[in-house]
């Protein structure tokens, strides 16, 4: 598909991240001389004992997978890619992410819980690698015009914020639930809790495949959200879903992530009274 920068209006993306063991060792256990692996293992154990799950804060994480879908003004998919394949280096993933946003003239980011996780990971990675992002960190603009303002949907649409009315209620089930409501696969065997162990086993390609599938789920939820906001009719949305399925089918011949997604594909069932 054409990827002319003038056509890209939205970037739907998802981040998978792994722990920076050296940073954890220095910050949490400065006097214990733990190896990176020991520091990560110890912190995960502490989190499990305290909270029953070992999800680490984005401040300790490095991106190991970022998948990005380019979407045009009519909400149609142009392309979907995993950054820095097949090497998946955190520094290059970060550079290409922000470079792409600039190249496509600062499209609107679209995420699910991106303000709470994905974007902090990418912002802190830019900080780590010494990148300058005045267009994103435009802190001297009026508050409501700043790109990072929580309510500036002209810069970033966080679908969790939209669907939960900015956390007025808890979006129990998350992206998995919203995808399943409209017949899309959601989580199918892998979820975020398994990423660190997969990374430790060297399964970077599988992590990035999972990331691509999360982006597809996010995209289809985004489409349905545009029906809610009146930017698409239901018939228009369903036409785009069919077009996208055809695109996925073409890609699936050479990409196991898309083949897996199609295996779990479901069509939204229109109620008879609609």
Walk me through the structure.
- The protein is an alpha/beta fold.
- The chain has one domain (5-263): 2-Layer Sandwich (Nucleotidyltransferase, domain 5), CATH 3.30.420.10.
- The protein has ten helices and five strands, in the order E-H-H-E-E-H-E-H-E-H-H-H-H-H-H.
- The chain has a five-stranded mixed β-sheet, with helices on both faces.
- A hairpin with a 4-residue loop joins strand 2 (61-72) and strand 3 (77-82).
- The model has no long low-confidence stretch (mean pLDDT 94).
Topology:
Layout: E1 8-19, H1 21-28, H2 36-51, E2 61-72, E3 77-82, H3 90-103, E4 108-111, H4 114-128, E5 156-158, H5 159-163, H6 174-181, H7 195-200, H8 204-228, H9 234-251, H10 256-263
Parallel strand pairs: 1-4, 4-5
Antiparallel strand pairs: 1-2, 2-3
Helix pairs in contact: 1-2, 6-8, 8-9, 8-10
